Amino acid sequence: MVAPRAGARRRVSVLVTGAGGYVGSLLVESLAGLERVVALDLRPAEPARRVEGVEYRAADVCGAETAAAIRELRPRAVVHLAAVVDPPPGMTREALHRIDVLGTQNVLEACVAAQVGRIVVTSSGAAYGYYPDNPAAIAEDWPLRGNPEFAYSDHKRQVEALLARYRASHPALAQFVFRACTVIGARTRNQITALFARPRLLAIRGAASPFSFIWDGDVVECLARALASERPGIYNLAGDGALTVQEIAWRLGKPCLEVPAGLLRAALALLRPLGLTRYGPEQVDFLRYRPVLDNTRLKSVFGFTPRYGSREAFEQWAVAHAAA
Fold first, then answer.
1. Could you give the CA distance from residue 205 to residue 2 in angstroms, rounded to a whole number?
2. Angle at 196 between CA 190 and CA 201, to 5 degrees
3. Any idea what DSSP says for residue 125?
4. How confident is the model at residue 161, as a pLDDT?
5. Half-sphere exposure of residue 165: CA atoms within 13 angstroms, side-chain side
6. Distance between CA atoms of 9 and 249, rounded to whole angstroms?
7. 6 CB burial (10 A radius; 0-12, 13-18, 19+)
């Protein structure tokens, strides 16, 4: 066996898109030293926050530079995390679609061209949609309906349709698709945790509004396992169980205001045009009909059991934020 030349570079093992995001930065940190990692993001991590041994590149997920990087490096696997979870004020639906959907298409085309062997993609339980006839626990064979009025949900549905077409036309590219519920961790701050940070929580009268949670460390471990797994497929990524808004309010020691759905919808329709809230009437169903994900297949087929259930993950978050 011929030894590699001194200073020779290993072939890139993993290329991560959206590497500057919350989950992306945690994943890159966990893989450093185990794999040769290239981290792509529109705004790469600042030098002081970069992980030793990781190559950082600036790249628009929709742009030629992302496709060129994949074709140049020909990684063994791509982890596609680039998406807009919490859009900044003023971001248009067209801009969101470009990143979420066209960005995914750009990555898939480049993976096929470079003969990448596997792609790991974070989807979302939001792809199922927020509907009153959703089952109490949604399995992976439930239809993906999204919600046209809710960009994130609709775009995840479109991304999954795109992935399905590529599974049919390019079976050599093994897909590991994880439909995640709400991700929380000690440092999580997003539009969901912002609801919990308010002086009092809002609930829809007569609705349980269940929240499924997955701990960020469990997400990272699951994605890392997918890089070596021989079980491609689609998996719900969630901790066991769920918590109602009322249970969350009780744990946080906060009052819970229960409002009729029609009244809340009318109030949001009035207040958003006045700039008094960022939320519109479409957010009522987002709170009212939250999908709870069945993680049986994740555990029995993929072979991963999250360390924390939804209740335990939320407790960890609550303790961390009480001390902050």
1. 70
2. 140
3. G
4. 99
5. 10
6. 53
7. exposed
> Is a pLDDT exceeding 90 seen at residue 44?
no
- Asked if 253 contacts 197 with a C-beta cutoff of 8 angstroms, the reply is no
255 class by beta-carbon count within 10 Å (0-12 exposed, 13-18 middle, 19+ buried)? exposed
Q: What's the mean pLDDT in 113-139? A: 97
> By the 8 A CB rule, do 203 and 235 touch?
no
Q: Report CA-CA distances (Å) from 202 to 151, 159, 255, 261, 267.
A: 22, 31, 9, 11, 13
d(CA 163, CA 267): 38
Cα–Cα distance, 297 to 299 (Å, whole number): 5
Share of residues in the chain with pLDDT > 70 (%):
96
Cα angle, residue 196 at apex, residues 256 and 276 outer, rounded to 5°: 85
Q: Confidence band (pLDDT; 50, 70, 90) for 243?
A: very high
Q: Please tell me what DSSP assigns to residue 113.
A: H
- Average pLDDT over the chain reads 93
d(CA 189, CA 192): 8
Check residue 12 and give its pLDDT: 67
**3-state SS, residue 16:** strand
Spatial separation of the C-alpha atoms in residues 144 and 131, rounded to whole Å: 11
Q: Which amino acid is at 319?
A: V
Is pLDDT at 68 greater than 90 in this prediction? yes
Can you give the pLDDT at residue 75?
97
pTM: 0.93
| Short-list 189, 251, 252, 186, CA closest to 218 | 186
Alpha carbons 153 and 220: distance in angstroms, whole number: 22
Can you tell me which residue has the tokens 């969350």?
Answer: 248
